[in-house]
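FAQ
Q: What does a multi-component entry look like?
A: The components come first, one per line:
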Amino acid sequence: MMLLWLAALAQAAEVDVVVRQRGDGLPIADAEITLPDGTVVATPPDGRITLDLPDDVPAELTVQSWNHQPVTVSVTPPLDGPLRIFLMPMPGPAEVVVEAFRPTADLTRHVVDAEMATRTPGTYDDAVRLVQAMPGVNVQREFAPNSGDIQVRGSLPGQSRAYLDGIDLPYLYHFNQYASVFPASWIDTIELFSSTFGSHYGDAVGAIIEANTRQEAPEEVGGQVHVNMITLGADITAPLKKGWWISGAARRSFHDIAGESSLQYPFWPRFYDFSVRANHADGPRRSSVYVTGAGDAYERAVGELDIADPVEQASSPYLAYRRDYQMAGGTHAWQHGRLSTAFVHDQLQARITEDTGHLLQRRLRLPLRLDAGADIGDHWRWLAGTELRPEILMTDLADPGPYGELVTTEAPELAWDTDFVGNTFRMRSAAYGEFHWYNNVVRVIPGIRLGLDTQGWTPTIEPRFSARWRVAEQTELRLATGRYQQRPSSPQAQILDEDTTTDSWQIGVGLDQTFGGRLELSVEGYTKALANVFVQPPDGVPELYRKGLVYGGELTLRYRLRDTLFAWAWISAGRAFVFDTTFDDRVPMASDQPIAGGMVLSWDVTQAINVAVRYRGASGLPYTGILGSTFDAAQDAWLPRYAALNGDRMPAYHKLDLHFGYSFFLPTWRLDLYADLWFVPPASAQLYPTWNYDYTEEGFVTGPVFLPLLGVRASF
Amino acid sequence: MPKLAIVATCFCLLLACQAPFGTDRHDLQHDRIVTLEAVSVEGGVRVWPWFLQDGLLMADGVQVQWSWVPVDDASSFSPASHPPFSEALAPVVSWPSSGEWLGLTADFPSGTRRFAVLASPTGAAPAGRPTLEVEQILDFGLQDGDPDTLTIEARLPLATAPRSPLTSGASARLTLQGTFDRARWMQLGDEGTFLELTTSTSDWTPWQLHLDDLEVEEAEPTPDGLRTFVALGLTRGWVRPALLDVFSGPSGESSPLPHGLFLSGRFLPTDGPPPADGLVALTLLADTSSNALLRGTDLQPVPADELDEDDPWGTEALPCRTPVSGPFDPTWVSGSRCDLAAVDGARIVVEVTP
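Then the predicted structure of the entire assembly, as tokens:
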């Protein structure tokens, strides 16, 4: 046979062979091709090789690669074109990922990445949504008005900050509920610092969310087109020369295009986001410049038209809402630091028809952030940085009278019973520094953060301290404490001339234990003593409470085999109150969720099949009920009489999400189909309370019990 | 944000739902402050509260406290926070120049407490009380299940004609005549559905409709009978109510309408058939089993020349809150001028018109 083969070679044909990976078409280097005579040749980096094969003689070629499934193909030269051979990638090694023991100054750091986002039920490919399934984050009712509120360890939504590569985001979720405002394809990791974080973050007494963009250069042009029941989007990444690459992404909801509208929503809600980015990598130096933006808009009746007459409906005022921002910025990172800056234009327009009232708010910002750090010898490390946040806020607020309290979801300032027109310049600046002293057992991190706000020229001084003690090989104790201060929001400062700093002394302790180097167990306890806490009532300006107290604990279990399985489960207990003088007069904060817990399990059964489950359950959050009404005889209308602030509570919430995904590995692209099924027990399906015409009857708008959601993603 | 956080569920709206509440705004049921009628009088404005007690328009037994309330406290005041200046049922008041609103705390015999406010009326008080008129809509089309028939544009051109009583199952067009900016519509009971047409006109159908964006999701007929409509004319803080009883159903021998006569648009049941016309003396008896609150007994025709010269209608001596005179008007009881107990047993004379 061998002799026949060799003889046949006398009349050989050249056959071009291209070896690529099934699913994305990437070339495979070092793939070994075994010829009929036993000769083995390897593909170069571009996966192309030319073989001499006998003419008109069937030949079997076996192709294998160390991380692909081998393939045997029969071929009879000559061929009209190149022979393309696609190898199915093999599952990666079962790499155990252990997140604990990261030596930062933060008491708590939770990390999610793109893999987790796409393989966790209920996130709809959105990494940021996954934050809301993290330990310590309040469980919110899906598609309720406050779905997008990030309440972490008893903090109120305005007390936390969200960053994208070091730059403050104007807002995190479209309509505060559905999807985050930047593409998931951008995201490498999202970090959540639940409380008592290090001195590199400030002007927040709640939590920090930091989204970090991908920094790895692509080898080939790649991209995705994805559609689900609400949005359609696409993104593309392409390498350029000399270490540069570019990426772009865009996404848009499509229900408004499909003609959806109603009396309540004559302009059906629509949102979009986009980004264009150029990156450069040169060893440890990485730079990027980007333009990104997002926008939300709709028009809705101010009142509830379902209970209105036709004439009332025809004369009902409408709220035209538009919110959008654009950012143009850049980052430069090197071995010892990172510099980030961006020009941010952010505007909010909330107009009530007939010019009954409006809020027109435009904000121009030019934040700049510098973080640097380096080791000093074998036991010391320093970190330092500065943050400058100049901004111009232009506001035109016309009080809409009684309509104000009906639009607080979109523009709380409209319920402040005031008019305001003016432009304000404000600069908030801060500098921080921290030292790490460490050896193999202990790490001690003192730090301090100093700030100055031109609103009242008020300084902030925030000493912080954390320590870690490696008690045993798989055991670590953590302690963090410090002062956290937050200046009033810009609308508060501008419109209400508010200059009160919210103050919080925090302390937390934690224990990390791994079992067998695989299963992680974390137990944490925390408390926050607050002063000067702003709480937003159902209408009117934010109320100032002199004191507040938050305390609680969390227990978390984590397990992860990269690219195969990840799971975590948690349970947390805590309370959050404000009060003026004594604790006996305490009022629950809107974030007071005594018990919360959940679990996530995602398993790639095969390369093509993923099944996952997520459960979240929690006590209902407080809300301010209504005890009846005052009848306004001149208008034949009813004014609600509010009960005690946050004195009522939503029913407990339970939600189970199931996820099934199937991937088709086509020669040069991959098709992912997924189906999510949510189940909310009927007793938990309440989204928000409503009242009848005179507020004497309370009911709830309820969401679906079962809801299937489908999605498709094609990537190349 | 008491009830309108719906924006955040926009992507879930098609799937979200809400169980309907028990009572519609138009349906006068249970205990309620129906309105505060402001009447310009010498020395100020007399404010007449209209109360609904267990579905009946009457003020008997309701305890009231009047306070001056800063506008910002309108939705939270109480007698404890704003001490009352009067406990009279219908005080004469002048609004203070500091801009406070008139606040009413009403304690019903059932134990229910209700609050109301009235801003200072401005401009001249409208002359006279508005009147309610009704016509039958000739081709409402609801039976065809055409959802467009319920839009304002579709209903405006519908032809109407006077009918009394209304044909069984027919819809009506109600018009409030008088000086006011806009009208508000209600009915005693909960049968039928209002569909407003203009600021002074509303259609009413005896069908119980469940609507979504003015599309009929469900329609159930209600039985024929007597309907009591209440309309409020609102203008610059002045509020003027009007009442009208309308019967729908067959007329003549097969009519289920009980014996009775119409007084100022209200139906007064009587123990026997009243004469076709002329003056009739009757005794009023309280009867809270019907919306009319009263029934006439012991009917006797009275020759005109036998009427009391000083009090021909028998109303001058009624122990009401303010003096009344002239032919008996059932709205005296509905509008708090007279307690039901005050007219119970009174012998009056009424004029029956064909």
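Q: Is there any commentary attached?
A: Sometimes. For this entry: Chain B touches chain A through 60 residues (CB under 8 Å).
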